Amino acid sequence: MYCIETKDLTHAFSETEIVLNKINLQIPEGSIYGFLGPNGAGKTTTLRLILGLLKKQKGEITIFNKPFEGNRIETLSKIGSLIEAPSLYAHLTAKENLLILQKVYGCPKSRIDEVLEIVGLSDTKKKKAGKFSLGMKQRLSIAMALLHNPSLLILDEPTNGLDPNGIIEIRELLKKINKESNVTIVISSHLLSEIEKLVTHLGIIHKGSVLFQGTLEELHIEQSLTSVIRFQTSDNSKAVELISKHNISPKIIENSIVIPTIEKIIIAQINKELVSNNIDVYQINTEKNDLESIFIDLVK
Amino acid sequence: MKFIYSLQSEWLKTKRSAASWLCLIGGLFIPTIYLIAFLYKHKTIEGIDGKGAWMIHFGSLMTNMQMFLLPMGVILASSLITQMEFKNNTWKQLHTTPQSLTTIFLSKFTVIALMTAKFFLFFNLGIIISGLIPSLIFNGRMPEETFPWKFFIEENTYVFMACLPIIAIQFLISLQFKNFLVAIGIGLVGLIGTLIGLGNWDQLYVSPYSYVLANAQNINFGMNLHGSSIIYFSIIMLISYVLYIKKKEKG
After folding, report:
1. pTM higher than 0.90, yes or no?
2. What domain count does chain B have?
3. CA distance A21 to A12
4. What is the pLDDT of residues A56-69, one digit of tens each?
5. Which residue of A166, A222, B127, B235 shows the fewest CB atoms closer than 10 Å?
């Protein structure tokens, strides 16, 4: 069952500037969905459309199995969000900022201290939010998103401005919330390395189109398919002849032999054959075997 | 009930805000000047005239207030409260809360109206204090005349009604423009233009800034000033609401 589903979501800021082109997202309930794409790919626009911050032009948005249109208030009551830069009242304290939302959501006042404790801002006391560091502002924004115990969290680049420790803490916090409360989390980022340790599912968007959508395992399969093995030998021409005998099509690129990924045992066998045929093997290495490379390949 | 919670939430945002300070300082400014003048000249309100001292004192302060400080204060307060969301980048937060757009619009407007009422409260408090203190100091007693509560309430209500078109137009502008200076600039130009046209142009009632000035000068444009003010206010509010609802980007 999907928590969020979009069908052919299309959006243009002008006739010539189409920012989203038939986006079909399927975000499973209970998942941590990483929404990945370079800056300007259309991530924030998609999330703003999902939250009703932008007027929908074309396509359908279904959240909790109901169309967003016509169920706006009911849907928003179950969503916590953080879109781009933190939204805080600079002249108010952390508690007062949360109190504003507590009144609207009607959740117990005790939740304010709970969420402040969760994000590590319990001792900010009378300090105004405007005096907070960017990291603290980001934490307070996360606290605001968590205040009413939402079933769905939509976080647009929530670790912006956080130091490495802060990033790890937020990652662990989100994992905990997802595991303990079965909260579906949609988290956008332009860095795969930042979210690959967190997400169960991934959607990659580039220039307004979704290039990949699936589980992390599916991306790993894609990853193995696109990886190559590179041999550097003393006699590349002779080596190519020998390697071709294994039903592999080697290519000589930049003074080295490049072949698609094969089993380790075959790599060892080829190596033995090359050596026994008096060919010196200087280097064997796997290339593009990381998710970041796949991401870069996809968005090229 | 949803509206009440929304209103409480909006009111909380005004805590320690510039608009809140403006109400306090702006409301007490003219009464403080009068108080200083009374103390300096060793005068009391009873010295103004034997009868209707409170009414004369009120009328004098209110006329001065209405001619510039009140419209300017209302322009600033209306713009500051609405602009708070732009300044803090919080429209998106507000628009993702489970409230109808109508509730958000109405509660935001109500806060501005309440803030204006707070301004009136401080101003009236200032009038009373500036009347009482000189009498206590120089006469050693309270002013002899009974305080005319009914008159005060009626006059304040009329002035408040005359302020409503300014609140509505500033609210409309502030909701549409991200830049705070646009709202303030239009407000100032509108106010100064109306001040220049006052008494020289019969159709000045087209300016939303004219009603409070006309009220101060006892000009009625040949119609029921306060009734017209309410109608004008309602029309601007309706336009403002439609523009707000139809806005394509909500943060």
Report:
1. no
2. 1
3. 9
4. 999 999 999 999 99
5. B235
